[in-house]
Amino acid sequence: MVDLLSPFLIKAYVAVLLMAATSIIGSISVLRGIAYMPAEAAHAALGGAALGILLAHVANLTLDPYMVAAIFASITTLSAGYIGRKGGPEAIAAALAGALTLGVSIYAFVRYILPAKLRVVLDGYLVGDILLLGDFDIVALSILTVACMTIFAMFYNEIVYVCFDPEGAEAMGVNVLFYDFVIFFLIGLAGSIVTKTVGTLIVYALVIAPAITAKELSRSVNGMLTLTAAITLVAGYSGLLLSIVFNIPSSGSIAIFASAIYVGTMLAKRLTLKR
């Protein structure tokens, strides 16, 4: 029988809490009309992790590739936001598509030239396992999550204002460019955090699906943010339980629950509207 208070499970519980906190940034990306950006940031983080592993290998350095992944993802979202901001969401999407291509290309190239044992480490960023996080991973993720949520809390009112009415905010003297950059930076951090916990391929299910579901069920911004975190918690802990009981991959199980909640909500809403 599995000990539910074993060290590796306790670290997984903490990781789910961290994901729930950062999932709030997914709600902000949905409100700003750039729901796809966290997924693009995750792909950028994948390329950053590849660069970190390659640098540590070539220069024989003791370097955590995740730190490089987080920095690379944040810089990429900031750059894409700057390039595409004047053209609106479509221009940002085009810039992020280029960033995604760059990140995936770096991953593919670096993976090809790395030794086999390091390819395994790199592939862990593609499809991660929340049950394999180490002590240092939890510390690093906690620090970045606290930093992310602190910045968000500091500029909460301005960020929400910019998300709903950027033209009106600019007319009122709000520095929309600055707060857009804050949003892009936070999305980059959030994408890298989820990449480390469950992998790049699962980011959309864990960051965007809860946010969209919460938007459909909420009537206020605060309600949406709270519900987004709650859905992520339910999906995270339910997925962990499923993986323990049936001995299946944890990341996939968590994504299945998040996706099921989203699909179930959409179907229920459609049926309600038809009636």
What is the CATH superfamily label? Answer: ABC transporter involved in vitamin B12 uptake, BtuC
The helical percent reads: over 70%
What order do the SSEs take from the amino end to the carboxyl end, as H and E?
Answer: HHHHHHHHHHHH
What does the radius of gyration come to? 19 Å
Reading off the top of the CATH hierarchy, the class is best stated as Mainly Alpha
> What is the residue-mean pLDDT, rounded to a whole number?
86
Backbone structural class = mainly alpha
List low-pLDDT spans. none
Counting DSSP H or I runs of 4 or more residues, the number of helices is 12
CATH topology tier name? ABC transporter involved in vitamin B12 uptake, BtuC
- End-to-end separation in angstroms reads 47 Å
How many separate domains?
1
What portion of the residues fall into strands of 2 or more residues?
Answer: under 5%
Q: Tell me about the biggest sheet? A: none
Structural shape: globular
Would you report the number of β strands?
0
Descriptive account of the structure:
- The chain is mainly alpha-helical and 275 residues long.
- The protein is 82% helix and 0% strand.
- It has 12 helices and no strands.
- It is globular.
- The mean pLDDT is 86.
Give a quick summary of the entry.
Helix content is about 80%, strand content about 0%. It has about 280 residues and is an all-alpha fold.
